[in-house]
Fold:
Amino acid sequence: MATEIAPNTTDAGETERETVSRNFIEQEIDKDLKEGRYASVVTRFPPEPNGYLHIGHAKSILLNYGIAKEYHGQFNLRFDDTNPTKEKGEFVEAIKRDVEWLGAKFNGPYFASDYFDRMYEAALKLIRDGKAYVSDLSADEIRQYRGTLTEPGKDDPGRSHSVEENLALFEQMKNGAFEDGSKVLRARIDMQAANINMRDPILYRIAHLHHQNTGDKWCIYPMYDFAHPLEDAFEGITHSLCTLEFEDHRPLYNWVVENVGFAHPPRQIEFAKLYLTNVVTGKRYIKKLVENGTVDGWDDPRLVTIAALRRRGYTPESIQKFIHLGGISKANSSTDYAMLEYCIRDDLKTRVPRMYAVLDPIRLIIDNYPEGQDETFTVPNNPENPGLGSRTVTFSRELYIERNDFMENPPRKYFRLFPGNEVRLMQAYFVKCVGYQKDEQGNVTEVHCVYDPESRGGNSPDGRKVKGTIHWVNAADAVPSQIRLYENLIDEEKGVYNEDGSMNINPDSLKVVQGYIEPALAEAKPYDSFQFVRNGFFCADAKLSQPGKPVFGRIVSLKSSFKLPKA
Ligand code: ATP
Ligand code: MG
Structure:
């Protein structure tokens, strides 16, 4: 999308919008407006309500919405519900919610099925003009007659029907006189065309199916390549932005809008789909994972549906940034998931509080801290954002720390706790390890320390340095909490898909641990996000949390290998 720089005020006092690196779609639109092809810009997002939207759809939504906004035009949400078998009301609601959540303000929603009467009229016009005919061929015969990339097709005998015969047959099709598959309406274009899509494509098929919007009114349904350009044209769409696989369909798109006869027909422009390396993005694959129970629904936080990303703790801003960084191009490529992680880290870094939570707890006892005593520390919620204020944490003789912050026999360069070593307890005191206990299995059960009362606040009393700083929670008031750690759903060594369409699932993509959180975190509401210091960003799971008993899932760890591309 265009990178805007500050508006310039010219001497004449007019405000000029200056933009740099305009993408190829914006360049085409600029040209169309300059040449007077359209007076304003209208775009749309046309999902089929047969599943939830995913990160790839976000690219299409934000591109179409962004263009409409940039040109002070209009953006429509239209459900492509021409296919009565697969569509569900649940998906319509989910899609609307996701588009809104992404921040795209739309007109509508509109439904393609609301245009069935007008589509039927358009088909009648083509028949009257001698540009469409009813065919008696079976699906197999149509395939045989179509030819191949190297062989031209053969004329369908239906081509010789008169206009009157076609009108009568099409009406009978509509009235239910024929069985499914026994007849179709075809465009009369060119069975020798080099582009197979132009070899008399099917416009209408017979399907005695109940439609969730139109009920049993229709037993003929328009094909996508006929319906889609008409839907665009009926809505006055000017630029119909779609993905590259529709490039070969563009001549047919143009044929439909020209021959049905629109004064300002829409124009199709293709761009590359968004793919993420080693991530399942295709709707039908995500559907498979939902249906076979690999995940706990369309919003399982390990998926990249919009609903899943929201539940995981992604923000609309982070997704907008990710799509913006990826840019718009005409060449397919695959984007690294690390870029998406970079965007959410960057968004949350200064936006959310930094709190204490211990994921794999082990007890730490401060032998020289008086039993029964406690004290409080005031801790800034986010040192990079004073606006987030501060909170009070309590401290006493018994704490929990991370199990891996202690080692009996540390390797070189291990600066955390081990017998004889001193570390800083974040914001609290210096403590020195004086011993530890183990159970029969040899697992460390508690670590013993002594503290230096002079180091209150974590400050060195005499200039002596410690190399390790670890976090902690007070055992007296820490709240036990389920914490979920996610890895890629896919086994990255093997790649996503196998030849038979199956996927390589990573059996360890979900790890559930019982940790301890500081009391303030127990108040978290669904979708509240935090940094758990040293452990990453976490979000209260909207499906699993109970009031006062949040379940946290890790959005992303703190470390990144991703580098922002140079501008
Ligand atoms: P999928 O390929 O995942 O099954 P779809 O193309 O069948 O998705 P639709 O509901 O038909 O899903 O798509 C609505 C719009 O979203 C279409 O214009 C389509 O081109 C666009 N779209 C789908 N996937 C992507 C993607 N990965 N990147 C960009 N746009 C996409
Ligand atoms: Mg589709």
Notes: Residues 55-70 form the longest helix (16 residues).
